[in-house]
Specification:
2 copies of one chain form a homodimer.
Chain A (H helix, E strand, L loop, with lengths): L9 E2 L4 H4 L9 E4 L11 H6 L6 E4 L15 E7 L7 E4 L8 E2 L12 E12 L4 E4 L8 E8 L2 H4 L6
């Protein structure tokens, strides 16, 4: 696959979308949102600011028992596969920055493994049907979901040196 | 593959390790740690408490330019593939809990997509050789690395309702 580069951008000498040899992920469900390519907010905080509250997870039936013990009000981390972007950029120049940055310094959905994440709050639960309503999300409608994790301070909050 | 279950545990009717049809991940490097199966701490906080400071990332050469702009002292999120565990448990009973919980309520490395994550601090950088030293990590030595992301408050910190 051939792609354009902006000035200062650098591509890998291979495209992980074609050459990756690691294990396959499985999509456990989809994220539903109001966003389509062209109108998605830049991150989950911006999504909250829009006031648009349509944001939910629809789990595949086999995975529904995995919700056992989840509760509304809880903070969770979603991992999702941003499947519309390329995977071969290692230096990028997002339009809101003045110059190129390494992919691992950015939260761009364009990365070797296009796994995005956001911390969100559960606002409603329908465990019979595998629906988890959340306070906001930044991704396109129908983005594939990889994982749901409870947010845990000891693991997820920055730890400052003594 | 056949696996044992503890009382109260439930497996999926299929094993994602064999049936997953999603895209393949690519391993961008390895996490080096002092831990082997049997002696790994339960999470990154416990790892810090051991006082053991050997924890680093070794990137594959092609991905090294992706570090451009990273700095020591910065908080980053690591995503890593916990490749030693099964992927088919949807209700689990970890030994430190009194009963079974859904996989998505746990941080167990056993999950449909065995992607673990921790927020860590960069303590040293050798960008020529793709080495990122970090303050601690909980995974086994040589665990495959999927991604490095900058920790960003607006995306990663819990957001409480007004």
């Amino acid at each position: 696959m051939s792609h354009d580069l902006r000035e200062g951008e650098t591509a890998l000498p291979f495209d992980p979308a074609e050459t990756a040899t690691g294990p396959r992920v499985t999509f456990i469900g989809r994220i539903r949102s109001p966003w389509q390519p062209g109108d998605a907010p830049r991150n989950v905080s911006r999504a909250r600011e829009t006031g648009c509250e349509y944001a939910r997870i629809e789990l595949e039936p086999a995975y529904i028992p995995g919700l056992t013990g989840l509760e509304a009000g809880r903070q969770i981390i979603l991992l999702y596969w941003t499947d519309r972007g390329r995977r071969d950029l290692i230096l990028q120049r997002p339009s809101h920055l003045d110059g190129p940055r390494g992919t691992f310094v950015l939260r761009s959905p364009v990365r070797p493994n296009p796994i995005a994440m956001a911390t969100v709050r559960i606002t409603g639960l329908d465990t019979n049907n595998g629906i988890v309503e959340i306070d906001a999300i930044d991704c396109y409608d129908n983005t594939p979901l990889l994982d749901i994790k409870p947010w845990i301070r000891a693991v997820d909050a920055p730890h400052l040196p003594d």
